[in-house]
Specification:
Elements (H helix, E strand, L loop, with lengths): L2 H5 L1 H13 L11 E6 L6 E4 L12 H13 L4 E7 L8 H9 L6 E5 L7 E3 H4 L6 H5 L1
Parallel strand pairs: 3-4
Antiparallel strand pairs: 1-2, 1-3, 4-5
The structure holds zinc ion.
Length: 138
C-alpha cells in the first residue's frame, strides 16, 4: 500500500459505503460495496453488487469497481481494495481471482462494515496460489 491510498482509506471506505447503498440485490438482500484505487492513480472507483433474475448474470461489487477502473484508466495494479458488507466478509473466490490479475505483493484488501474499514491484508492471505499467466504460458 502506498502512502497515497493509506491516507485515502477513509475516502475509499466512504465510496464503498455509498456504492453499497446502490446495490441491486432484490434476490439475496446481501448488499455489497467496494472501492478500488490503482497504484499511481488518485482516482477512486466504486462498485456495488448487481444481481440478475438469471442469477448467473449477477456481478459482484469488487469486479464492478475493478472493471470500472480498467475501463477508465486501462489495466493497472490495485493498490488497495476496500470491501463493505453488513458484517465483514472476504471477497468470493471469483473476485479474488480477478483481483489477482491486477495485484502484486503490495496490493492490500480491507474487509469492513459500514462503521469500520478493516485490516489491510495482502491478497496472499485470501488466495495463496492464484491461477495466473504462468499457468498459461509457463
Ligand atoms: Zn465476488
Amino acid at each position: 500500500m502506498n502512502s497515497d491510498s493509506a491516507s485515502r482509506l477513509p475516502e475509499l471506505h466512504q465510496a464503498a459505503c455509498q456504492a453499497r447503498m446502490n446495490a441491486y440485490a432484490p434476490y439475496s438482500k446481501y448488499r455489497v460495496g467496494a472501492a478500488v484505487m490503482f497504484r499511481g492513480s488518485n482516482q477512486i472507483y466504486a462498485g456495488c453488487n448487481v444481481e440478475n433474475a438469471s442469477y448467473g448474470g449477477t456481478m459482484c461489487a469488487e469486479r464492478v469497481a475493478i472493471f470500472s477502473a480498467v475501463a477508465s484508466e486501462g489495466a493497472g495494479i490495485i493498490d488497495h481494495l476496500v470491501l463493505v458488507t453488513e458484517r465483514p466478509s472476504s471477497p468470493c473466490g471469483l473476485c479474488l481471482q480477478v483481483i489477482s490479475e491486477f495485484a502484486d505483493a503490495d496490493t492490500r484488501i480491507s474487509c469492513g462494515d459500514p462503521e469500520t474499514i478493516g485490516d489491510a491484508l495482502p491478497l496472499s492471505e485470501f488466495l495463496p496460489r492464484p491461477f495466473n499467466s504462468k499457468e498459461l504460458f509457463g
